[in-house]
Amino acid sequence: MRRKAVLAFGVLLLGLGLSQGPFRARLEAAIQGGGPRFAQVMLSQDKAQALCTQYRDRLPADLVPKFLEEQKALIKYPASGKLMGDWRNGEKVFTDPKRGNCYACHAGDPKEVAHGTMGPSLTGYGQRGQSEAVVRYTYEKIYNAWAFVPCSLMYRGGVHGLFTPEETADLVAFLLDPNSPINRR
Amino acid sequence: MSVRKKRLILLAGVAFGALAGLAAYTQQSKPLDPFEEAMRQRQMYLETFGVLPGDLFVEEGKELFYRKGPSGKTLEECDFGKGKGVLEGAYALLPKYFPDTGRVEDLETRVYTCMQRVQGFKPEEIKRDEVRAITTYIASFSSKAKIQVVPKHPQELAMYNLGRELWYTRAGARDMSCAVCHDQHAGQRVRLSPVRSPRQGLGNEWPAYRFEEDKLYTMEDRIDFCYESIAIPKPEFYSDVHIALTLYMLAEATKAGHSFEELPFFTR
Q1: Residue B35 scores a pLDDT above 90
Q2: Locate the Cytochrome c domain: which residues (chain A) (predicted)?
């Protein structure tokens, strides 16, 4: 009975191995077929992207702590140590489709009506105040969203260099400064 | 006057109107419903020109369909899945496996391979715009047809699995995948664009004329537009990437019982 179970388990493992191998090879061939530029990006997933793909964005609970810890370690800070910069430049980075592209998902300045709805509205975000904890959370969330929610839609803009640590601080100011259009009434 | 010339004049004439419309559109205090706006634009085209831009692509595609290739044959000699020259409802069954090429093909790829195998064109002689027009012509025979993409052949099943894996693959500098928007956030908007899931009928409107871009988009063009917008360079045309993703999306739309829109569709 036990030997049968072990055997069945072995066959299962073998089956998994066999089906994983050729499938992966076929997938990679198809991606290569999309041309070198496409393949270069699709085949250079980092470890986190590969995990999110594997688990369809629902990471098993036991993998979460290490995932968060590794993502947290990727966060870099401005040399000045200041996590709140210039909200005017922050607005540029926030709006620029090649950098923050934040309006794709979030509402911000109430004057901007062409905003997405996939993320929470950020209008009035500054109500949270400017305590050290709020500033730090805002900075780290913008720099690396996956350090808080594994595999979230919100991407790791700072980690990928879409904006620098200084620009991240500018984004923080755009969200928290009372004079920013996000907070003006 | 050739269809191409007519199209050029129409598009040039309309570009200004569309641009003005778009400017008014984005400066509204409240965002308009994008579908209502598309219908309004469509009506404007009909009233001003008596024809929709998509229909000019259909006309051009028809001319090209009946053009003889180097072999002396027209595309009537190509089997698009329901037998040689049968176009009625053919698009609604694609992508599918074709024994003569030994691969799963979507309509665009089928046009591309038939132009080579049947008509004798060399790959470098085949213009993307021509394939686009012929695809639109053939797809117009499946206007409002029920989508019937059901993978059965082992190669179709393999292609479905490939498509599903690509669908979930998170990559690039924006950490994106298709699924993260089109499944997890389906029903929401990116900027003003509503985002649907395959189960909500995603993919049932292509080929379509997009008035915002002033261009005709096939399914492959639309997939490329998505990839580019998430910082992943677009795959090359007629690749298994396009075919697999198309098969996956349309198979899911089939399960949910969706039909195609009026093809070619008119959209933002």
Answers
A1: no
A2: 85-179
Catalytic-labelled residue, pool B22, B186, B226, B232:
B226
Residue B209 pLDDT grade (very low, low, confident, very high; cuts 50, 70, 90):
very high
Percentage of chain A lying above the pLDDT 70 cut = 89
**Residue type, position B42, single letter:** R
The fold of the A46-185 domain, in CATH, is Cytochrome Bc1 Complex; Chain D, domain 2 (1.10.760)
Segment B232-248 shows an average pLDDT of 98
Mean pLDDT for the stretch of residues B57-81: 98
Q: How are beta strands B193-194 and B189-190 bridged, if at all?
A: antiparallel
Give the per-residue SS3 of chain A. CHHHHHHHHHHHHHHHHHHHHHHHHHHHHHHHHCCHHHHHHHCCCCHHHHHHHHCCCCCCHHHHHHHHHHHHCCCCCCCCCCCCCCHHHHHHHHHCCCCCCHHHCCCCCCCCCCCCCCCCCCCCHHHHCCCHHHHHHHHHHHHCHHHCCCCCCCCCCCCCCCCCHHHHHHHHHHHHCCCCCCCCC
Q: Report the distance separating Cα B37 and Cα B193, nearest Å.
A: 12
Contact call for B239 and A103, based on CB within 8 A: no
Note the pLDDT of residue A185.
Answer: 73
Q: Binding site annotation covers B199?
A: no
Q: Which residues on B lie below 8 Å from A116 (Cβ)? A: 188-191
B92-111 pLDDT tens trace: 999 999 999 999 999 999 99
> Domains of chain B (ranges plus CATH)?
3-49 (no CATH), 57-142 (1.10.760.10), 154-267 (1.10.760.10)
Q: Who contacts A114 (Cβ-Cβ below 8 Å, separation ≥6)?
A: A103, B26, B31, B191, B192
| Distance between CA atoms of residues B143 and A4, nearest Å | 56
Instruction: Give the start-to-end residue ranges of the domains of chain A.
Output: 1-44, 46-185
Residue type, A96: D
Least CB–CB distance from B165: residue in A27, A57, A115: A27
Q: Is the pLDDT score of A3 beyond 80?
A: no
pLDDT for A161-177, tens place per residue? Answer: 999 999 999 999 999 99
